[in-house]
Amino acid sequence: MRRIIVQGSSRNNGNTNKIVQILQKYLECDLIDLSECDIRQYDYENRNKNDDFLTTIKKIVEYDLIIFATPVYWYSMSGTLKTFFDRITDCLKIDKETGRKLRGKNMAAISCGSDSHENEGFFIPFEKSAEYLGMNYFGHIHTWIEEKEPSDSTLDLIKDFSKNLSKCK
Ligand SMILES: Cc1cc2nc3c(=O)[nH]c(=O)nc-3n(C[C@H](O)[C@H](O)[C@H](O)COP(=O)(O)O)c2cc1C
Question: How far is the CA of 81 from the centre of ligand 1 (A)?
Answer without folding.
Answer: 14
